[in-house]
Structures are given as C-alpha cells and as structure tokens.
C-alpha cells in the first residue's frame, strides 16, 4: 500500500510536469501545422511528404492534448455538474462516430441519475467518458453494442460502460492503463492512464473487467452531491 501511494504521488509529479511541457509545445505546434498546410498549397500537385508531415503533426497534437489533461484541476474549476445532462451530451457527441462503425449506444437505468449532481470539472469527466466510448468502438470491428448502465450507491454513483467487443486477454489485463501501453497501430496508450488519474482526482475509482471474445466493462465510480 505504501508503495502504491508513492507510485501515485510520483505519477502526480510526472503528470504535472508532462502537462506543463505539453502546454509549452502546443503553441509552436499550432504555427508549425499552419505553415505546413500553407506549404501544401504552394505545391502544384499535393506533396506526399507534406501530407506525412501534417499527419505526424496531428499525431503530436493528439498526444499533447491527452497529456494536457494530466494537469491537476484547481479548486475553482470544480463545479456542480448534472450527470444526466453530461452523459446525454457525451452520448450525442459520440453517436455519429458509433453509427459509422455500426455501433449502437444505449443507456439503461437512466432514471437512477435523474437530477443527480456531482462535484467536478465537467470537461475532464467528459473527456474520460469519451475515451472509454472511443475504446469500446475501436474494440468492435464489425459493429456491436455499447450499454451505458447507471446505478445509485448511497453517496456514490456507478457508471458502467459495457461493450460487445474483442475483450482483453486475462494475462494482459494488468497492463491496461500503463503509460504508453497500446495494442493499436495509431494508439497512444495514454487514454486510460489519464482517465484513471482524472477520476482519482475526483475521489472516484476506475476499474476494468473483460472477457476475451465477449466484451469489456469499464466502471467509473464518482461521489455525488
Ligand atoms: P489507446 O486507445 O491509445 O490504445 P488506452 O489507454 O485508451 O490507449 O487503451 C489501452 C489499451 O487497452 C488499448 O490499446 C486496448 O488494447 C485496451 N482496451 C481499452 N479499452 C478496451 C475495450 N473496451 N475493449 C478491448 N480492449 C480495450
Ligand atoms: Mg484509447
């Protein structure tokens, strides 16, 4: 337990540092991307090299964007957030991408969170739910179902995301959420690590259960007002 605490403190320090550096990288990156796009227009035929440069800049941008989320929220960023609205928002936001992949998103037991508020940083929690749903979509090559299930526990709420995707082999489950651990060609391996750190900064918990070939469940527990 002592070791665990030290580890999570270490992650906090490294996270703050990473977020700070990411912030510094963002501005020069934006101008680099702008000028590279301009360069593309200068060529009469579209240049493959410039295309590659743009897609690599976009990749850096994705990583930087994820690292920025590691910044610890300050006290004044915490607000009362309506969970029902936030989840509905996320579901709408993600439904286009889901549709494109033949994935349907349902919310069951929605009434359990009617008028339920939690104290938190809306955009960060939103990003966590988007990360989880993105992973679920990516795990379902040939379409499938994402079931969002909400349950009231006395002073907390459980938000479960079930998917019917490829699942995770039992012997790899412990690696999920390690920084840079990814099984995807274009993955960053940062999504779940950062999601976990955001949920923990809200005094919540993030857990993953999975059965290979059947699907995965990601559970988020948050304290409610
Ligand atoms: P990335 O999505 O960039 O790979 P994440 O931290 O979001 O990074 O996820 C890490 C890894 O966990 C993924 O590469 C994938 O192997 C596994 N994973 C995450 N969510 C799921 C899921 N819903 N179903 C199957 N595997 C998953
Ligand atoms: Mg991901």
TrEMBL record:
<protein>
    <recommendedName>
        <fullName>histidine kinase</fullName>
    </recommendedName>
</protein>
<feature type="domain" description="Histidine kinase">
    <location>
        <begin position="20"/>
        <end position="225"/>
    </location>
</feature>
């Amino acid at each position: 337990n002592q070791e665990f605490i030290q580890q999570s403190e270490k992650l906090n320090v490294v996270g703050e540092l990473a977020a700070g550096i990411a912030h510094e990288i963002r501005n020069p990156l934006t101008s680099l991307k702008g000028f590279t796009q301009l360069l593309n227009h200068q060529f009469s035929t579209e240049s493959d090299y410039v295309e590659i440069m743009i897609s690599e800049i976009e990749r850096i941008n994705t990583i930087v964007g994820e690292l920025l989320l590691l910044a610890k929220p300050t006290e004044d960023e915490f607000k009362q957030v309506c969970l029902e609205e936030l989840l509905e928002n996320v579901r709408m936001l993600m439904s286009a991408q889901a549709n494109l992949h033949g994935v349907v998103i349902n919310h069951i037991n929605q009434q359990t969170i009617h008028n339920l508020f939690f104290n938190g940083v809306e955009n960060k929690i939103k990003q966590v739910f988007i990360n989880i749903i993105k992973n679920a979509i990516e795990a379902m090559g040939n379409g499938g179902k994402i079931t969002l299930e909400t349950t009231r526990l006395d002073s907390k709420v459980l938000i479960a995301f079930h998917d019917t995707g490829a699942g995770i082999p039992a012997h790899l489950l412990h690696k999920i959420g390690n920084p840079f651990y990814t099984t995807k060609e274009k993955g960053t391996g940062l999504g779940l690590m950062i999601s976990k750190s955001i949920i923990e900064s809200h005094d919540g918990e993030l857990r993953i259960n999975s059965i290979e070939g059947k699907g995965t469940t990601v559970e988020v527990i948050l304290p409610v007002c």
